[in-house]
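User: Here's a chain of 598 residues. Predict its fold as tokens.
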Amino acid sequence: MNEERRAYRRRLITLFVTVLIAGLCILRLGELQLIQADALNAQSKDRRAVPVTIPALRGNIIDRNGDILATTDELYDVQISPKNTKVNNGRFGRQAGDIDSGKREIVTSEQAYAEIAEVTGQTADEVKKIVDDALAENPKSDFAYIKRGINLNQLKKLKKLQIPWMTFASNFNRIYPNGAVAGNLTGFVGSEGQGQSGVELSQDACLVGEDGSEAYERSADGVALPGSTVTTKEVVNGGTVELTIDRDLQWQSQQIVNTTLENAQAEWVFQVVMDVKTGELLAVAEDYSVDPNDVSASDPGRRDARSFINPYEPGSTLKTATTAMLLNERQATPTTQNLTPDSWRPEPNVFFRDASHHEAKRWTLVGIMVNSSNVGISQLGSKLSPETRYNYLRAFGLGESTQAGLPVEDSGLLYPPEKWDPQTSYNTMFGQAVSSTIVQTAGVYQTIANGGERIPPTLVKRCTTADGAEKKLDHGKPVRVISPEAAADTTAILETIANNQYPGKIIEIPGYRLAGKTGTAEQPDGQGGYRSEYVHSFAGFFPAEAPQYVIVTSVGFSKQGEGGVHALTAWKQAAEAIIRHYHVAPSSGSFEPLPHEY
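Assistant: Prediction complete.
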């Protein structure tokens, strides 16, 4: 009897324990299903989810007319999961034939290698070697590149293969459709797509955009689950940078400087075209500029915008600034008389001479400029204090960078007057002991042509973001340097120069009134002396009666001789190109040259 009771008690205990355990399991299951379901699902999804970065497309660089100077072509990288090529003994199933057929086929990894290779231009053995090498290094390898930089057509063919362990990623390729045209200005990007020079560097923040991201779920064997892709952050492509450059005029100007370089046997040739009323740079040409599509093929010394970073003594082209100061300060008029010798020693330790020997001449200020007399311009210019002349040169834009929109500029050399020795004080009046870039020199002539108001030079016009918002750059405010009357008198002097036998017979364009000044400048040799060759320039504008375009051409160190003739010829060719390109109407009215002598 007692034995039966003990057995009954054991059965009750066993039943109770069983019911208790079952109850606890039910409670736990309920908690998992009802209370923690969302959290567990999220954890499970997190373990299965694969994040993918969607790179932003780098923005375009365009010219003033919307023509593309730099753009991005989207290519694609072929990626695989090496370890998953071995899943299911290296076999996978895919749909065969048309979608409606419902047929399936089994494909081996070896067959897939051959199909991939047929599209990418590789061999099946090459594809297999990539897989085998990855697994030999790491048996759990989940990533390897099969091919980088395939095009859209190849991508479509590979996607049709339905290979579960193969994925694709965008790979952007920067393209410069016009080659070397404006290559010195656009600059180029590095292997990672970041700006390295030029506008690509200075406007990198506008061009780069913001990467997006998405995630997809994958099965235990690493295959992406169809329909599981979710965008977690929208991609924001880069903005568009608009330059003031005119692509077609830039091309013509580059052809001119390249031809001039060869004809003059020069070391370098620069040419700048500027809009008088806006200060916008229409062309900034340098000999044999870099082709950003193939940077390594270019001379390292020609990869940057040398017009902004290579200053030189402007020489007699800067006499125009001294003339404008005198006129504005009413210390001279165009017909002011000056008995001008060919050399002058104004102080015991100061001496300079004109380029050629001559008897004392009864020249007006016009005659001094026509004959480019160092002595004459210094005799008249000495009426102005060094401080006054320095302030004018700064107002004309010398001694400071233009802030036109490039990452690096040279401000040139312009010491304050307290650092001028007596010789330097005189030399600055005729363009020595001071240096400027060709763009700064163009700014001086833009000021004269624009009635005495300097508009800071502009290269980068605006940045427009992907959503259409416009960001204009601050290039500075206009500066009144001289009065309209002084500018008009200076223009009349420059037009008289352009009508003289030299340079007039070289630059003459029938029907158009021109104004400008030649310049022949020595350059330091880096050893305390000067080189034997010169920099020859011509700076001017047209039409003289209503100026629209400034052109400055400089030829550096011509070994052929007659460097000035080459500079003048290139200037005329640029003016003729502008007339054709913009359909510039001929000048109205005639001009009577001002008197040279008294």
